[in-house]
Backbone:
């Protein structure tokens, strides 16, 4: 029986799967062969498309007619396709997609959707598509109960949670299925359904509230998505009533084994656990004098019989640092902490590492930890939710930043995309908002993440155009070009009008929106720029600084070590330099600050007017929402420009070389 | 029937009315004469004292015996005593207190309590005591419902509210009576029971929830305290369903008249309304193109038939100011706004003016508005709750600051204490905390406020010693001296380690606790210091600045106009000067900043050790609470010192003249 496509609630945006995206398939004749649960999903998709566009679908044996499209399970070729791979070819007027598993067939279907009419023209040589990374995951920082400070979704800018509301499961499973469908269409295959900061209500999802997780898992399963759960390391104490959560304690091991067995009874394809331990106040193995490998292996052992994994976050640092102490460097923390543990993690334990050494700033170097643990499965964590990049009120398409991270080559000439054997993870930017992501254009981030997780060396601008083509079917060139124009450079634009040259954290404390140059300067969070009247930046060199640059292999260690060779965009991350220091661009640091901040605002003004010119080409609700957010972005960009420029003008005393007014 | 003294709940501190404070009276023979409700209160007090200490009390006609103390109503002397005045004399072994009203007799009783055994020694010439100010009021910024940002008590640092909890009346009326008793003992005679920011639940106290206010009024009445209510100017719309709240609209006037009549039906001695209008988002007459006099007179007219007054706050300024605009000066706002309205306010309207032009900073000049409205009844508002002065985690006895304000002489040689014809008001620092005020030593602020409201030219240090004597009966000299030592200079100490030289607002945004030198520098709140690499301060001179100095009469206008004559402690409030500017003290501004910040911390260390030396002399619970808060104060003072010194060292580049380490 074909599985019906989920119906979107009234007013909810179809994102990159509008009905018209299925026109090419829906108007043709399709044969579907094979038997597996996800084949029913594929069948349902084609049935709905044909219903809308007048095509035909045949299931099982061919009926003797000619088919434009054949979607067939089981036809293994010379190379193993695995559960998720597929082939695509066109010959004799028929486009054939084959896969050895249901998920592969579903991904093949969405591949044809992306190709559109191109899939049905001429001949196509047989192509094999397989995901580079087996795990392509979204972590939801959703709380079950509304947190007094962080709300329903921590760092959420897209309305409420898709899963939870006011302490209960939201129960809108059709919306969850529709979400799963969107994720499958860009290649995502795992979702963790609750915040890594696990509070009291959320902790119980593991035990007596597992049924609520099972409902979500059931809704996501038809789209090939496995469900994961953030758990509290202290669960044996807080939920199990044990006197300890010591990972070497037998009763603790038994408790986790039993709890995990019951999870799998409820969710047979459960993906595993996500754990934030000994980090920003969360409990962890340190309390028992145990290492993080011992902590992670405890959960890995419980998951191992069922094939699950634990994603153990490497985000461990001293968040009660003394700002007066310039020798402690938060950037060093993950490397210093975890590299000595390389080789000690069990196979079912994945160490989940943020892509940069700090915390999702608009510009950071790639974390040196990623290349430094060859005997450990690593996952790399990105942040789709725009905590530090405009909070979905500003357009900031992160594709180029993520691509830069994934293509960065560590030692042994392996790229980050290759090193991320444990998968690519992003903190989700989606929520109950009718546009899914608050800012309609932030959908491009979610889509791009999925596609880069499938193929880390993909060209991000091609992915962007793919998203445009899907989301705005049959867009006239003016619209497609306009969308590309306002998104493509938006990350650089955002960087220009915010914190300069890699220095980071010039945001308002707490909510992290809007500028406060000294907001985190005298804080315990390890986030400093050390600006004084003479210069700015953090000396992280080996020779005179914190030594962080030495955590990289060559050539990076040497490159970052000297201000002469350090790339401009990371200069203040690695070095404290005078305002008069001349960049490779030929400008002084201070003039660079002034210029980029003026330019950033001008670029927002330009993007806003491009968007205004697209009125009439975009549906009115979406156009209005984006137009309204551009007003806020422009206001915000001007505020950033003026606060940053005034701060550095007051501090440096250096007038703008172009004589512009700085307060 | 004598009214029983309220019983304190278990564990609640007796503050300045411990049983032993009544020893002198309770061990003697007292005659009470006269009939009035408050005479029953007096009788109850003496009965309880005698029960405890073995004395005797006779009510009505003398029984032929000799009396140590006679408390008599009705014996009017040559000068009118009014409802609140009393005389005290001692002759022939009897101390006699007379009053023409019950409240006077109650105040006379507490006068004898303060005198203790001294009241019963030798002869005492007849003294007349009358309050200088008819209204001595506490404004509670208590919310009925817990506000999502501000909580149960806005700027409350003493636990929950005494009146409200989670949307309902707290109903602990014995605690409210005990509170009233403490207030009466220091001379306070009015309490406003809800926050000046009137949210939805609070607005209804005026109408269908007036019964809850009446319960509080009934509990406070036996101690001579009238109850007031903060109301929303928009009430005719939000509660009355009218289309407008225009003060000149007949239906609006009728609505207020009717609502007020019903208030007096519930509370016949109701004091009146408190209104924050057109301020920080509260509604007001501006919406209808009416003046604040027209707004205030609307409510005054409704209250007039019943003898109530409206306290109309003068805290009106632009809280959405552009920080780039240096011509707008928040300090000017109240004067600019209200002086043109002088003479237009009705007799029952009192304009309630904050003592300084900004907002309760640790150092501000006295508001020039106070001397500039001779035809308007003014009340002066102080802040006992320590929003900007350590939030009751730091010891900061405000007596000297308040006394300085009250003794400040405006035009016509009248002091602020004399100009405050509409009363003295303080934002209360009391709450449900077992010590009433969070920090046990913050009780001294509450007590001092009451005594200064009674006698604005009182010597604050004498009031402090009075508080010590009452609160720590029979304290050995070491204890009395120690308490005096840690409190007396504490305001100056707090000033030293926080914002220097009158500049203000270097606090963390939102909660206002702890340092953030630039926290309000680029904000819309009108709160700037304009520090750059060369200097700091706000030019408020007439010649080159915002002109604020010209709002004062001579000699102040001239004195403040020039940095040469401006008092050091207000220099940065009135002038922008280079860091090298030499103060009258002979120090440069920058060296003054460094020195005071080091000194401030040293003074806290000294106070902490004085307190430590008092262990064993103070009851353990109180000693522990204060000791614990000294740890936080010291931590906080060091943080203030280091952030402020580092900020100015980084900005100015001037090293400390004494070579101390600054990060």
Residues:
């Amino acid at each position: 029986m074909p599985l019906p496509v989920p119906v979107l609630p009234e007013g909810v945006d179809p994102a990159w799967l509008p009905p018209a995206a299925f026109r090419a398939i829906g108007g043709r004749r399709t044969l579907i062969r094979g038997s597996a649960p996800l084949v029913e999903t594929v069948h349902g998709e084609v049935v709905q498309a044909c219903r809308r566009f007048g095509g035909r679908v045949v299931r099982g044996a061919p009926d003797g007619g000619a088919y434009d499209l054949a979607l067939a399970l089981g036809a293994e070729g010379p190379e193993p396709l695995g559960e998720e791979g597929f082939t695509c070819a066109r010959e004799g007027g028929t486009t054939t997609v084959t896969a050895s598993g249901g998920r592969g067939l579903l991904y093949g279907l969405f591949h044809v959707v992306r190709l559109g009419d191109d899939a049905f023209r001429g001949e196509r040589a047989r192509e094999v598509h397989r995901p580079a990374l087996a795990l392509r995951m979204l972590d939801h920082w959703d709380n079950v109960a509304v947190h007094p400070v962080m709300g329903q979704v921590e760092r959420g800018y897209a309305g409420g949670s898709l899963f939870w509301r006011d302490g209960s499961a939201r129960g809108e499973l059709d919306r969850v299925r529709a979400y799963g469908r969107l994720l499958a269409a860009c290649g995502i295959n795992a979702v963790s359904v609750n915040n890594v900061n696990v509070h009291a209500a959320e902790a119980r999802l593991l035990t007596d509230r597992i049924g609520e997780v099972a409902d979500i898992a059931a809704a996501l399963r038809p789209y090939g998505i496995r469900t994961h759960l953030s758990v509290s390391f202290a669960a044996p104490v807080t939920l199990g009533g044990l006197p300890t959560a010591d990972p070497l304690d037998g009763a603790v091991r038994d408790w986790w084994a039993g709890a995990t067995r019951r999870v799998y009874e409820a969710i047979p394809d459960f993906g595993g656990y996500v754990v934030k331990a000994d980090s920003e106040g969360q409990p962890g193995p340190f309390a028992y004098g145990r290492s993080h490998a011992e902590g992670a292996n405890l959960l890995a052992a419980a998951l191992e019989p069922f094939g699950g994994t634990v994603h153990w976050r490497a985000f461990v640092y001293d968040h009660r640092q003394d700002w007066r102490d310039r020798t402690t460097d938060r950037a060093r923390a993950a490397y210093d902490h975890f590299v000595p543990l390389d080789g000690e993690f069990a196979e079912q334990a994945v160490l989940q590492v943020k892509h940069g050494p700090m915390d999702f700033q608009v510009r950071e170097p790639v974390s040196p930890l990623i290349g430094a643990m060859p005997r450990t499965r690593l996952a790399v964590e990105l942040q789709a939710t725009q905590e530090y990049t405009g909070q979905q009120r500003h357009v900031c398409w992160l594709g180029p930043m993520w691509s830069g991270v994934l293509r960065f080559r560590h030692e042994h000439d392996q790229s980050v995309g290759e090193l991320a054997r444990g998968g690519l993870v992003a903190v989700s930017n989606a929520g109950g908002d009718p546009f899914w992501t608050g800012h309609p254009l932030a959908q491009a981030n979610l889509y791009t993440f999925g596609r880069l997780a499938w193929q880390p060396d993909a060209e991000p601008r091609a992915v962007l155009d793919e998203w445009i083509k899907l989301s705005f079917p049959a867009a006239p060139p003016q619209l497609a070009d306009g969308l590309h124009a306002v998104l493509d450079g938006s990350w650089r634009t955002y960087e220009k009008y915010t914190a300069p040259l890699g220095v980071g954290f010039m945001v308002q404390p707490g909510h992290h929106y809007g500028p406060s140059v000294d907001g985190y300067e005298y804080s315990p969070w390890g986030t400093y720029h050390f600006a004084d009247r003479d210069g700015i930046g953090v000396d992280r060199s080996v020779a005179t600084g914190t030594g962080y640059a030495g955590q990289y292999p060559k050539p990076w260690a040497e490159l970052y070590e000297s201000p002469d060779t350090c790339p401009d965009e990371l200069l203040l991350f690695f070095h404290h330099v005078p305002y008069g220091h001349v960049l490779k661009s030929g400008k002084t640091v201070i003039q660079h600050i002034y210029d980029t901040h003026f330019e950033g605002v001008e670029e927002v003004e330009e993007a806003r007017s491009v968007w205004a010119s697209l009125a009439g080409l975009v549906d009115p609700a979406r156009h209005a929402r984006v137009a309204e957010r551009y007003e806020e972005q422009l206001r915000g960009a001007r505020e950033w420009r003026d606060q940053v420029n005034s701060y550095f003008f007051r501090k440096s005393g250096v007038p703008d070389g172009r004589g512009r007014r700085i307060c």
About this structure: The CA atoms of residues 139 and 436 of chain B lie 15 Å apart. Chain B touches chain A at residues 323-324, 326, 508-510, 515-519, 522, 531-534, 639, 642-643, 646-647, 649-653, 663 (CB under 8 Å). Chain B has three domains: 19-129, 136-307+328-471, 495-538+576-652.
